[in-house]
Each structure stands twice: as structure tokens, then as C-alpha cells.
Amino acid sequence: MPPLLLLLALLSLTPRNGVLRIAVTGDTGKGADVVAEGIRNVHAKTPLDAIILAGDTFYPCGVTSERDPRWKLVRPLTTIGVPVFPVLGNHDFCGQSDPYAQIRASGVLANWNFPARQYMVRGGVADFAFIDTTSYLRGKSDPKLVDAFRSSTAAWHVVVGHHPVISSGYHGYFPRAEVKRMREMIPSLRESHADFYIAGHDHHEELIRGRMLHLISGAGSSPVPPVKLHVSTIYPPEIRPERIGFAVVQIDAKEIRVRFYDAKGNPKSEWIRTKRLTLR
User: Fold this and answer.
1) Which pLDDT tens digit goes with each residue over 175-213?
2) Which CATH fold would you assign to the domain 9-274?
3) Of 86, 196, 242, 275, which residue has the fewest beta carbons closer than 10 angstroms?
4) Alpha carbons 170 and 210: distance in angstroms, whole number
5) Is 2 exposed, middle or buried (0-12, 13-18, 19+ CB in 10 A)?
């Protein structure tokens, strides 16, 4: 039995008039300056409440300390002026990386909110569980999602992890052992009544609607198109060249809306609306 890495740290996020608006990007490891421009432009038109970073914030490997000069790669995002909530990706563990340096940077780097490798954010209309999927894949943690949401009274349960559970990108198909291990998380997601899973790792933008919503938003700095679209993919409508971009998720008590944007902050899709898919 692997040691349990529990979701103990707790943060809060207050919706505006019952609505949360969150930008989601991931795999910004080559530098977030380009995607940050688009997020900043969207924020200037309709204010955002937070930014979710879906892992692999630094390439080729994670930072080694709070003083690592590569922190400059994320400052275009942290200076937008809203809370940034990250998760760890596989690149954050390689080489001489110190994953805990990203946690220690909380309170040092403005707007950087990373209290633990796994943590909860209570957001009024939605509660978020941020999990360490790299440790899960290595058999070193159990996200314990049922416990994470046991006391939740929010309308929506959202899980954020670097590795996708379902994806049309390369990592939705390979390596097969990794894909199998991520699919083994599905019963836990269902038991916890998760409505929405957010990931990166694959460097494209996609929304899949099945028994729950799956958002892949990993086109933050080095985009790669999908391999083969999943039968339940609702965005993109077809495989096409991928460019740097991000998603905005808007959540109220009755529905989740997702819209995709390019690096300038121009919409690439209409708002995609989804009402509850799970029963509680």
C-alpha cells in the first residue's frame, strides 16, 4: 500500500456575484510570456478570478530553489493580478528539480498559491482538488478524492491534475502503462462525484464530454495537435495545427461554460455550455 498523500491544505476563492471565471493553461515551461498576453487581454475585458496552471511550468526540469532565475518564466502570469493555482507535472521532478521549491515560493512570489503538493480550493459554487498525478503514477500517493469532497457543499466538484485521464493527444494513448494507471482513477472520480477534470501534459486544447467533463489545456508554450479525436470530443471539431492558447472556465451554480482563446486573447470557439452530468 503506497503512503497516502492527503489533501490537507485548504485555500479559498470568492466568486463574483455567484460566478467564477478562471483561465486555464499548462505546459508553459518554455516561458509564459506569450500565453500571458492573451490571458491579460481577456482579464482586461472581463475580469478573471484566478489562473490554473496544469503543471510542467518549467522546462526541461523544474526549479531547484525559490531563487532559481527561471522563476522569471512565470512572472508574466503572476503579475496579472489574480491568484495562480498550480499543480506539479512530470518535468517538475526531473534532474535536480526540487518540487518543494514551488511550494516554498508561496508568499514569496506575488499571487503564487501552492500550499502543498495536493490541496483544496473552496470556491463557493465549486470546490477544487489539486492533485499530484506524477506521484500517483509512481505509486507514491493516493489522492483520496472521496475524502477531499466529503464535506463539500459546492454545486460542482473539480479535480485538477497534470496527466489527463482521457485525451486525444499522444498521452491519451501512450505509454500504455501510464494510460492504464490514469484510467484506474475513474472509479475514484465517480465515487467522489467529480464533475470536471482539468489536465495538461498533452500540448493541445480539448473538451471531452462523457460521464464527466474533461478539459485538456496544455498549449501554453509548445503546442502539439491531437493524434486521434476521442469519440466524445466536442472541441476541437477536427484535428488542425495547434497554436499557443488557453481556456477560460466560467462556473455558476447551474452550469459550467468553457471557451478557448488564442495567444492574443481572441476567442477560438463559442461558449460551450454544460449542465450537471453526475448525480449526487
Assistant:
1) 999 999 999 999 999 999 999 999 999 999 999 998 899
2) Purple Acid Phosphatase; chain A, domain 2 (3.60.21)
3) 275
4) 19
5) exposed
Q: Can you read off the three cell numbers belonging to residue 11?
A: 485555500
How many helices (H) and strands (E) the chain has is answered by 7, 14
Smallest CA-to-CA distance from 13 within 130, 122, 114 is with 122
- Residue 109's pLDDT is 95
- At 143 the pLDDT is 79
Selection from 162, 135, 175 nearest residue 216 by Cα: 162
> Hey, which residues does 157 pair with through a beta bridge?
127
Nearest to 73 by CA among 122, 21, 35: 35
Q: Record the pTM.
A: 0.95
Domain boundary assignment for the chain: 9-274
| Closest among 122, 134, 45, 29 to 83, alpha carbons compared | 122
Cβ neighbours of 154 (radius 10 Å): 17
Ranges of the chain whose pLDDT falls below 50? 1-4
Comparing CA positions, the residue from 225, 198, 224 lying closest to residue 212 is 198
User: Which three three-digit cell numbers place residue 181?
Assistant: 494507471
- Give yes or no for a contact between 229 and 184, defined as CB atoms under 8 angstroms apart: no
Grid cell at residue 75: 512572472
pLDDT at 237: 96
